[in-house]
Design a protein that fits this description.
- The structure is a single chain.
- The protein is α/β, with parallel strands linked by helices.
- It is 25% helix and 21% strand.
- The protein contains 4 helices and 5 strands; from the N terminus they run E-H-E-H-E-E-H-E-H.
- The chain has a 5-stranded mixed beta sheet with strand order 2-1-3-5-4.
- The longest helix has 17 residues.
């Protein structure tokens, strides 16, 4: 079965819409530095882009024990603030995939999986206009998000 790991670290977002690419950028940085800062063998990183709600979260694997989602979120913080949320703190319908499936809906079906969301307050999301690359503010927030991931996997 795909995604055979006890812990998944999933970066969500669209790299074409400025700060919406935060999740994939964090995953890329983690993977780039695995030689110097390895993850445990039971952890898998995934750049899920915009397909996570439909293609990943709705196809759970009984092997999963923990799902760490990295994404932007509007929690009324300052741009670049990074917080840890539970799936209960994600408003239903808040994040939509291209087919209007809410991230919160499939997450509700993951009863036996601990779900942690590491969310960063965006500065600029350029949708529907393409604007590649994070703002400097969110670039600077990547190390904090990475440290929070490693704390969650107990490294």
């Amino acid at each position: 079965m795909a995604y055979d790991a006890e812990v998944l670290v999933v970066g969500c977002g669209n790299v074409l819409f400025k700060d919406d690419g935060f999740g994939p950028a964090v995953i890329m940085e983690i993977e780039k530095n695995l030689e110097n800062r390895p993850l445990p063998d039971n952890v898998m990183t995934i750049d899920a882009g915009t397909g996570a709600p439909h293609f990943l979260f709705s196809l759970p694997n009984p092997m999963w024990k923990k799902l760490i989602i990295i994404d932007i979120g509007n929690f009324d913080g300052q741009p670049g603030d990074v917080v840890k949320l539970t799936k209960d703190q994600v408003p239903t319908g808040k994040y939509q995939d291209p087919h209007s499936i809410s991230v919160a809906d499939p997450l509700e079906d993951l009863d036996d999986v601990e779900v942690v969301i590491i969310a960063c307050q965006p500065e600029k999301v350029s949708s529907p206009f393409v604007e590649y690359g994070l703002t400097e503010t969110l670039e600077k927030a990547i190390p904090k998000a990475i440290d929070m991931v490693y704390e969650e996997v107990k490294i």
